[in-house]
Design a protein that fits this description.
This protein has 276 residues and is of the alpha/beta class. The protein contains 9 helices and 14 strands.
Amino acid sequence: MEKLIITAAICGAEVTKDHTEAIPYTIEEIVREAKSAYDAGAAIIHLHVREDDGTPTQSKDRFNQAIKAIKKECPDVIIQPSTGGAVGMSIDERLAPTEIDIEMCTLDCGTLNFGGDEIFVNTENDIKKFAERIYGKGIKPELECFEKGHLDMVLRLHKKRYIKSPMHVSFVLGVNGGQSGELRDFLFLKESLPHGTTYSVAGVGRYEFPLAVASILEGGHVRVGLEDNIYIRKGVLAKDNGELVAKVVRLALEFGREIATPNEARKILGIEVYDE
């Protein structure tokens, strides 16, 4: 099996310090959490940014500041800015990180009912526009799918050449309004992937570690982090993102999967290798 790529979703746009003090807002806190994850074994940092008061932002300057600060501490790590942003942001706002020199970012592949009145809108034309910008900038997209209809959209747009090979898909499971994180749902999605497609699994809340184990055993990759789950075990808050990553490392080694370095992750994903 390939070595395991671990992505750390260190921040997100929804979790606040009312949920856990470990969630980072400031640049210094973001760097602290990125380094804790990197030191524990994460090859990719999935990055949202906040204002110092915790307000989500897609500011190009804020992303640039955070990326430079993380790279100073973790020079070879892959930084994957979110183009999802937060509910209600415009397409142009969400695409702001693509104006920076980055090697990877997310591309959300369908609309989702987040509950209440919140709808995370990604129309087919939106997805085409995102894909055109991302590929046009030479950036590797991670294709985020919250349910089977999103994956079907990916496969259809791949046939129409809006989405290019080799594809890397992220199954984000257990989100309100999306597909659940039960094992049957993960296997159903995995079996729908075309040959040669790499994938990662992000289980939200209680699904995080059961799905991590499933992906480790099935040859996929894993995303963990405070964006998705704030507990190291039931009722016990994780002290930082590094503790969540370290748990996945222990699980992977127990099942015979070695952990990919950032440059090994680049080779697996078809990204140009970082010049050390």
